[in-house]
Amino acid sequence: MARTKSRDRMKNEINAGSMADIAFLLLIFFLVTTTIDIDKGITVKLPPWSEEDPETQKLKKRNVFSVLVNAQDQLLVRGELTDIDDLRENAKEFIANPLNRDDLSTDPKNAIISLKNDRGTSYGIYVEVYNELKAAYNELWDDECQKMYGIPYSDELPFAYKKAIRDKIPFVLSEAEPTNFGEE
Amino acid sequence: MFTKKRGKTNPEVSTASLPDIIFMLLFFFMVVTVLRDGERKVAVVVPEATELQKLQQKSLVNHIWIGKPVEKFRSTYGTKPRIQLGDKFASEYDIPLFLEQHKIKVPEVQRPRITTSLKVDGAVTMGIVTDVKTALRKANQLKVNYSARPRAK
Fold first, then answer.
1. Is A182 on the interface with B (CB under 8 A)?
2. pTM for this structure?
3. ipTM score here?
């Protein structure tokens, strides 16, 4: 009699009080091992490798925006020593050519950016230059997108929109083999 | 009547939902965690940039580190920039094998989307980076991401 009575009073549940402790332990483990890696960067597409010499293309001089970075991290843009802060604006003006000048690109479709560096160029500067050129295109795409669809350009844009904009202003960046200069 | 009812209720705050809250936090951290794959043998401080894109799927990304060996390894490996693949020092000739070893773990349909993340120290010269890029092109791994930190505009 007495036994059944005490059993009745007992609740048939597993004690979940220690659950929080176990969870805490796991939580602390993950907190410690976590490095919230912001895996971000500039995505590029390399040209495929071919053993043959690339076919030479005749290009109008006005359609080529040449950027040279030397081992002293100086910039030569279209034959002129340029500061990196001016690169973006120069590139934008070259690609869009809003004033129809005859020394800048005939059309964004024909514009080619040519990038060349030495083996001694620092990677930091290289990325900075690449970033500026990419930024120039991103700003132009943004302007075009505002004009065509009234929304800012972003990666989440529908594919058709992106394609329409990129057909109008294609991103053409040709990288030459670096010269063997200034390697440590 | 009222006093009787109050007397019966438990004055303690219920902790029954505590595990649930902790579990929620736990899952959050489990999802964002990147377990460190081995030891960093080269010192890398990636450059800053503004035009960044996020790398989408972690399983589709392989990493190549380039930088000067850390203090510990300077006596054996010197101070010239080195390549680290996985947890070992390597040269650009080891890259094709490294890419292949990563590729076989990825389902075939997703293979074209594999991206190589280049984690290169800002002070490294382009010579070694170019060698790595050439090796990647020869191995037909053309999707590359120059890893960078966001810079405040």
1. yes
2. 0.78
3. 0.76
